[in-house]
């Protein structure tokens, strides 16, 4: 087998696993997409990571997705007439509809009136895997730009709460704008904070009365000065108390920062941004190494805040093993109370299994969605 590298071969298994085969067929696939304006360095990156390059030919046929706000179902025909296109129901994901890829929703009246919002079906699947129910307290540790939080709040209905965290203030500001647009801010708090160290109890059900406007806080700045004046032992006791309260969280989503190589539309933007930018953001080895460190820290902290018996979903829009299965395997090895769960909701989902059991992968060819890796973990009593 000397001289062979990873490629893909579809095998007739229930979960659509992919096996790897030799360099010759991988190169033949690359020859077929030679008309794409992808630089050689990126094609080498795909080859080194065992990523099927033909997914980047599927963008023109991959539909856009929207979620219809609950209560607007009766207005579907009116929305279709105004947008001049058919909204096709996504049978495997309730509340979702697909549109032709060339349709822009931002200028539509339905979007401006808050009746629909754009969210890829794969991202919706990751939220669905959390099994959110009314009354739950939910944490989104990488919350921007906000579509996933909108879906969480839709699922919660009139009870429960969502706490959204993001390290970038400008991105979280966009998230706040979206929540206000869809009138979903009453049960949501947003914090500008480092998701690897964030620690704050969920808001009580009977106290969620303020809007996300007033709850938009810089948590790190707010607490840093306060804690620095307190004795070390007192700070430690307070931290333990906050962690105990945080254990009310029954669902945590860690949709971690990544190289975004599974998002075909994102990669295509580099044609305009410049391929040198792709080199820096995606292909640079030091950046990739720093991302995997960040991803593991986010996963650790999200799990720390999770209630015993609760569910955590880890996802990225990268297709590399290093940012997905390797992170999950390392996390499981160091956390005896963490158990990988079967994603029962995935029955009928158009996805394939990941490299380790019970994990899932979406991609444009298999799923007609953006690329996404999904793993679900529960916390066991110790």
From TrEMBL:
Claim: Lipid metabolism is one of the keywords in the record: no
Gene3D superfamilies named among the record's database cross-references: Vaccinia Virus protein VP39 (3.40.50.150)
Superkingdom of origin: Eukaryota
Keyword list, A-Z: Methyltransferase, RNA-binding, S-adenosyl-L-methionine, Transferase
Active site residues according to the UniProt entry: 317
GO terms under biological process: RNA methylation
Domain SAM-dependent MTase RsmB/NOP-type: 51-380
One function term, GO molecular function aspect: RNA methyltransferase activity
Family classification: Belongs to the class I-like SAM-binding methyltransferase superfamily. RsmB/NOP family.
Name by which UniProt lists this protein: S-adenosyl-L-methionine-dependent methyltransferases superfamily protein isoform 4
Organism, scientific name: Theobroma cacao (Cacao)
């Amino acid at each position: 087998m000397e001289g062979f590298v990873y490629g893909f071969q579809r095998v007739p298994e229930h979960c659509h696993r992919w096996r790897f085969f030799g360099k010759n067929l991988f190169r033949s696939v690359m020859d077929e997409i030679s008309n794409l304006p992808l630089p050689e360095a990126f094609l080498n990156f795909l080859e080194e990571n065992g990523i099927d390059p033909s997914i980047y030919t599927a963008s023109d046929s991959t539909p856009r997705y929207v979620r219809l706000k609950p209560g607007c179902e009766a207005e579907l025909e009116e929305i279709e007439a105004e947008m001049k296109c058919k909204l096709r129901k996504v049978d495997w994901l309730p509340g979702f509809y697909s549109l032709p890829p060339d349709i822009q929703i931002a200028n539509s009246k339905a979007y401006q009136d808050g009746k629909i919002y754009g969210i890829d079906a794969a991202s919706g699947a990751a939220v669905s895997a959390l099994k959110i129910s009314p009354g739950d307290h939910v944490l989104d540790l990488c919350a921007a730009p906000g579509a996933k939080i909108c879906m969480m709040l839709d699922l919660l209905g009139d009870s429960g709460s969502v706490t959204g965290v993001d390290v970038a203030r400008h991105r979280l500001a966009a998230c706040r704008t979206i929540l206000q647009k869809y009138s979903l801010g009453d049960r949501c708090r947003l914090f500008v904070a480092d998701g690897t160290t964030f620690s704050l109890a969920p808001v009580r059900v009977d106290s969620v009365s303020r809007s996300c406007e007033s709850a938009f806080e810089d948590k790190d700045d707010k607490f840093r000065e306060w804690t620095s004046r307190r004795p070390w032992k007192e700070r430690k006791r307070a931290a333990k108390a906050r962690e105990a309260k945080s254990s009310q969280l029954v669902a945590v989503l860690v949709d971690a920062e990544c190289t975004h190589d599974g998002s075909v539309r994102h990669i295509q933007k580099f044609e305009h941004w410049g391929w040198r930018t792709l080199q820096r953001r995606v292909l640079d080895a030091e950046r990739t190494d720093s991302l995997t460190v960040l991803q593991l820290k986010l996963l650790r902290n999200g799990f720390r805040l999770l209630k015993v018996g609760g569910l955590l979903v880890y996802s990225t829009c990268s297709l590399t093993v290093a940012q997905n299965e390797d992170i999950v395997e390392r996390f499981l090895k160091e956390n005896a109370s963490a158990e990988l769960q079967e994603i029962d909701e995935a029955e009928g989902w158009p996805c394939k299994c990941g490299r380790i059991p019970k994990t899932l992968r979406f991609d444009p060819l298999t799923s007609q969605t953006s690329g996404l890796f999904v793993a679900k973990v529960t916390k066991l009593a110790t």
